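dumping the sequnces here before i forget
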Amino acid sequence: MEQRFKRLLRRHGLVVAFLVFLAGVAFNADAFLTPGNILDVLRQVSITGMMAVGVTFVVLTGRLDLSVGSLLTLLTVIVVDQHNVAGPFPAIVMTLIAGLCIGAFNGLLVGFVGLNALIVTLAMLSFLQGLVLFYSGGSNVNVENAQDTWFAVFGRGEFLGLPLPVILFLVGAVIAGLVLQFTTFGRRVYGVGGNETASIFSGIDARWTVFWTYVISGFTTGVAAIIMGSRVMGAQNTIGQGYELTVLAGVILGGTSLLGGSGSIWRTVIGISMLGFIQNGLLLLGFPYYVQWLVTWAVIIVAVWIDLGAKRGRIFA
Amino acid sequence: MSHTSTVTTDRSPALAALSWLLRNHIWVFLALTIIVFSLASPYFLTLNNLGNILTQGAFIGILAIGMTMVMIDGEIDLSVGAVLALASALAIGLQDHMGVWPAVFLGLMSGAALGFLNGSLVALSGMHSFIVTLGGLIGIRGLVFVYTGENALMVPDFSYTEIPEIYLGPVSLTAIIFFGLALLFQWVLSSTRHGRETYAVGDNIEAAHDAGINVKRHKIINFTLCGTLAAVCGILLSMRLGTAEPNAGRIWELWTIIAVVLGGTRLQGGFGSLWMTIGGVLTLAVLRNGLRLLNTPNYVELMVMGSVLILALVLDKILNRREAT
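..and the predicted 3d for all of it:
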């Protein structure tokens, strides 16, 4: 019994610590664990969560995608602008295609040309931010007929009492989880991340696998941009700035290893939701806004360290 | 056989020159950008503007020195932009309480302390420095916002902004400090035990450990250096601006990594030098300055930087493949 408890704590210590945190906040702030607030938090994390689902694929192959923040900005600007030009449905299609294309370009450079993922996506971060300013001419765009368009449904709509963005996020996460667990592609992702050389020798084309993970990341960022555009009904030129950090923080916090091969979608969902609840909880407790960044720092370090220590069997390297 | 060998000896000076150029392509690229911008703008190749480029480049340059050391180690430091902002905020914010120089000193110490913290976390936990310093990037920036109360801090006495206004011809004190530090650390890299250990650790950490190098202590030293240099940059920036904005140095870590990688230092570690980094820093500064002189909109700069970086990587890939064969 004690053994099992210890093992549980070691494997899921993070979740236990998180539950303690939830209880602590709920004790001090009555509004915290109300259904309304929980839904609010989930609505807030649905955008970063959607992106994180795609980025998890990339991270599982041992690569990184830092370009998703700039990509989110670009795609949000595109969806809002095209909504005014071409209407909601073409705008959505165009946004998703643009996301797929840019993801494919990243995938081409990392998977096939074999460039360093960190630098490539860093370069894309800069390039896409330039593209945003080029496209928008530096001015913010807004949905013109915000009152009479069904486009608002993605960010503000509800279905069976649940906000639609939350449903999108959860459905996306479930599909992604199933793909990772039960398809050949999913096993290849783990294979490439676990040991790339071995995976190539077992007949996996690592180049295509890496390529598709970036395409997925571009696609989920497209979906996130649609939610974002629909919720804000407009797009500033910096709307997605820094999102890549939050997304990565969530993925890492969930325990997905940056070295690849180990992690899962549900871990990402937990990680990104934890970040959301921590930020919300700190605000409800009356801390200044930026204290949550400090806490995020501490939580990332402690969580990853504990995770690593548990796998290694001792705390220090 | 003998025939081929005579051919190679005939070509060897040219080949040697070519292979030097291949290994140091950043200088070719720098020369090209200088030529292009001199032809494109009459204001580019003036003594005044060249001095400006050096000053503008020096800020990223000072960050790039520490980043190079850390990268040769095979690590990365994403927190330099936030460390810079904290040092500059402390150097200005504390002046009211204790005078200029103690405030500057504490600003420097904050950088050293955060670098030490980053290094210790990396060395003790065995976590990847990307994660540790990504956390630092978020958390230290939060610290800056909390400390400054989300406002820009103004220097109480503007004689503070005149401290770096010393010029050697067109070269500002900031630029001199950058080159001085770069030369100092190049000497450290090439001629001291610590420098040789840096390459050894980056090249093969297991072998370095087995050879008796104290890898943990070594990494902590380099991260502390990187943090301290970021603080130096932040203090020079606060002197130049007279204010400390909480958003100062945002995404400068990206510019720094771009400069270092452009120079040819590899993220995998074990390879690189500050000569290369100086080349990368100057190229970046020339590009930014030249594009601004040509009155190009802001987005061109961002797009050119992205393209150049990818191009540099592709080039590096092709050249190294050729060298290996």
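Residues 1-9 of chain B have pLDDT under 50 and may be disordered.
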